Amino acid sequence: MRKLFRRIRYWIHNWQGDPELAEELEFHRTLREDRAMGNMTMAREDARAVWIWPWLESVWQDAAYAVRTLRRQPGFALVAVLTLAIGIGLNTSLFTVFNALAFRPWPVKDPARVVTAFSVMKQGPGGFGIAEYRYLAERAKSFSGLIAMQEWNGAKLDQGKVSGLYVSGNYFRVLGVQMERGRGFLDVEDKTESPEAVAVVSYALWKARFGEDPEIVGRRIRLDDVPVTVVGVASRDFAGTSPGRSDLWVPLSAMQILHPNDAGVRDLLTKPNYCCSSVAGRLGPEVRPEQARAELELLRGQFFAQFKIDRRGAVLLSGTQMLANPGTKRSGIIPVFLLMFAGVTLVLLLACANVGNLLLARAAARRREIAIRLSVGAGRGRVIRQLLTESLVLACLAAGAGVAIAYWLPSYVVTLAAGPVGLRLKPDGLVLAYSLALASLACLAFGLAPALHATRPDTARSLSGGDRLMLRGALLAVQVAISVVLLVTAGLMARGIQRARSQDPGFAIKDVSVISFDLPASSYNGPRKHAFFTQLAREVEGVSEARQFGFASNTPLSNRRQVTSFRKDGESASQPAMVTFLSVSSGYFNVLRIPIVVGRNFEPAGQDRKVILINETAARRYWPGESPVGKTIYLRTPSEIVGVVKDAYTSDLSQIEPLFYQPIDGAEAPEMLVREAGLSQAVAAIAKRIDSRVEVRVAPLSENLDRWLAGSRIGATLAAWLGAFALLLASIGIFGVFAYVVQQRTREIGIRMALGARPGQVIGLVVGSHSRPLGAGIALGLLGALGASRLLVRYLYGLSPLDVVSYGVVIALLALAGAAATIVPARRASRIDPATALRWD
Amino acid sequence: MGTKKTPQELLPGTLDLLILRTLTRGAAHGYGIAEHLKSVSEDVLQVGESSLYPALQRLLLNGWVVAEWGASENNRRARYYTLTAAGRKQLTAERAEFETMVAAIQKVLQTA
Fold it and tell me: Is A229 exposed, middle or buried (0-12, 13-18, 19+ CB in 10 A)?
């Protein structure tokens, strides 16, 4: 250690050579006049090599030289670093988000020992019933603790909504979560027979809603009007174990207290064949995951046998990182990230091509220096190393700036797009390593070809410039191609949104409002809800002359759906088909102007639950060539089809699937749709009069459409920005190449002009000389865009991937940018004075 | 190296040992060390600067000697090397090791 210190001190003192050593040797030489001294320089080098590994020193030398060279050309350095920094910064930012989402395990103590368990089911990995969990947790020896978590839709805390998790009593203890205040749950607080209304709140909630109240422990808060005692505040580092935000945690058994009127809760907590809570556990010391898995499977088998459940007990264990979660593969998040990575990688490539082009131009200016280096005996490898070091310095500077970008961009964009999330979006070591690797790759991508080029052994020929132009042409073609891909993508997505907004979705959006009602969960059970909505409907009928209102379990494009199994009359019960269904009142079809093509609507009053309506697609799918009206199908009960409704894009804008409509009974909390001016205020007033605790929210239906399109809009905006940046870079590239052509051919142009060529012909000559790479680039880009658009079909809402307008606009835009970038060099060419040109060079 | 007899190749590490031993007499500059080695060994050990100065740098790096600028006999600036406490310890250790080694070599030469 002391040695390293001395070595560093030596470096600091002698980093520009070692005058002391030189003087010492000189002194030695004067005293030894008697004879020749041998190789003084070698003696000095050998003596110095003790201190510094010469290789390392020469790397340092190269870097120092590179920095000096770059400082002499600040303009070039700035443009190159900025270009690369944006490329690397975008890439690193995306990786930061991906890293936060996918690679990080839960923020708990010793996360490597915590595994999540999934029960293997036909339709994919799933969870466990709570009774099943209790059985397993009691018996499993290979875990030092098993925990269960149940998603919670959230509750009302004072005036705002909070979301959280129901968790088993050992949750905080098993995960080893530190407490900022108070404690985690006790096992006695999670007994189904004696539930306790206690909660642990997150640090963020404690700060935001309780002003970091130091007396929070023991304080009573009201969740959905149910008093709950806060027993602890989780530490600041604990962001929770669900992908969303967790504001607070409540024991599983307290579900009974928070939903006093929901008869299903007790079943959920105690019935053996219920589903589905997430289960995770901390492996016991020295236990391998395989052992733990085998034990769980064995225990599940016993459990199923004991309760005579006909299921197999296969179990899957995985890490707690999202990427390790087997459910992730099905969620479709990976393809979205791959698409985005493709986009930002294209931009990075483009940036590399541009900087490569700049380097080529610079190599032309430095050919004398390089020629001298080569002719005085520097090996080609050595000169290439020098040039690559310059590239590496550029890349490292850019990586630094890129990481700085990644420090603020991800949280900014994610917050903008998705609101506050429980993700830690700051770059960590992995992100840093990623950006450095990226910089090194980029350095090779933009630096290697120019360096090889500049140091070719047949220096004389390479100086002629022909090959260099070839390389520049190729780079130009790549740039143009990438710009085309990105711009076409942006264009298609923007047109897709436009189309989605303008196309007829099959139902009315304009003038329709959605009214939702928040009923206090603590005092509304099924019958009470039914009574509320029956009274509401009756009173609204009294004030609404046109009766333009209806109820629905899900409003159009709300992104929620319910699925049920059914079978046709005469089919066996063992193979039911799955179909999406909606519960609606008869007014629903009037408000949304969805016509009934065959049969009749529900009877407004005196509904029996035995009738359903289906949409045209369902009719075509399940009763091809015959009329479904009058047929009976079996849902939970046999139901008669009384009518067929026209197809509408209510559940998905890009496709229509079979849909069944059931009459609504009001036992769920439905939303109301109205299309009468002033009616929504009247409805709100009526609801408040019936029960003043009811919260009413009114929003236009178009909000649903906007929310539905938000993803595409973000995608289109992203692609547009990337495309604009790509276009700018490509324009700079085009400009550079043509300016270079003019400079190279000044003499030739001069002669041509002296011989009578008109300016127009000269411009044609210059532009014509490089239209080939431009054309090739556009062709290549169009091919790439065709490929890319296939991946985007989901976001195009029926727009053809070959949309002429998008392609046309992009080509026009590119032509315009190309013209703008060529015009200056071309005009310069046409103004060349023959007399000057002939004296050129 | 001309017509002169080539100086004896030293065993690796021996030069460091010899320098340390020389410095027990007091501070000396590089040339002084070389001269001392030459005269004591009756011209057998002629240490060239291309091995002397790297060796001195090595000793500096290890902290066994320290260097200081001072005036030489002919009133020029010269760099004087002084043994440190760590250097003395190192000398003792290396010397013992060296003597074991020489004895071993001797034994081999006599018996073989």
Answer: middle
A120-173 pLDDT, tens digit per residue, is: 766 566 778 888 899 999 999 899 999 999 887 777 787 777 888 899 999 999
- Nearest Cα residue to A114 out of A50, A47, A170, A65: A170
What's the pLDDT at B82?
92
State the Cα torsion A244-A707-A696-A650 to the nearest 10°. Answer: -110
Question: Is pLDDT above 70 for A478?
Answer: yes
Is residue A131 within 8 Å of A274, Cβ to Cβ?
A: yes
Per-residue pLDDT, averaged over A482-496, amounts to 85
Per the listing, tokens 């899900």 go with A554
- Measured between alpha carbons, how far is A492 from A789 in angstroms, rounded to an integer? 8
Computed over every residue of chain A, the mean pLDDT equals 81
Structural contact between residues A832 and A750, judged by C-beta atoms closer than 8 angstroms: yes
Closest residue, chain A, to B32 (C-alpha): A28
Helix or strand or coil: residue A195? coil
Q: Cβ of A768: how many Cβ atoms within 10 Å?
A: 10
CA–CA separation, A284 and A282 (whole Å): 6
Nearest Cα neighbor of A116 from A288, A278, A303 is A278
Residues in chain A: 841
Say if A44 is an interface residue toward chain B (CB within 8 Å): yes
Best residue in B49, B52, B60, B68 for a mutation probing chain A (most A CBs within 10 Å): B49
Note whether A25 contacts B: Cβ–Cβ < 8 A: yes
- Output the DSSP codes for A494-544: HHHHHHHHHS--SS--TT-EEEEEE--TTT--HHHHHHHHHHHHHHHHHH-
Which residues, listed in sequence order, are joined to residue B81 by a DSSP beta bridge?
B28, B67
Q: Which of residues 48-107 of B touch A (CB under 8 A)?
A: 48-51, 53-54, 56-58, 60-63, 72, 76-79
Q: How far apart are the first and last CA of chain B?
A: 35
Return d(Cα A794, Cα B75) in angstroms, integer. 89
Which of A653, A660, A703, A689 has the alpha carbon at shortest distance from A515?
A: A703
For residue A357, the model assigns a pLDDT of 81
From CA A708, how far away is CA A710, in angstroms rounded? Answer: 6
pLDDT at A526 over 80: no
User: What pLDDT does residue A331 have?
Assistant: 57
The 10 Å Cβ neighbour count of residue A706 is 12
pLDDT in tens, A209-251: 888 888 888 888 888 878 899 999 998 888 778 766 788 999 9
3-state secondary structure of A114: strand
A6·B77 Cβ contact <8 A: no
Candidates B31, B58, B62; nearest CB to A31:
B31
**Kind and range of the H or E element at A568?**
strand A562-568
Closest by Cα among A124, A112, A126 to A300: A126
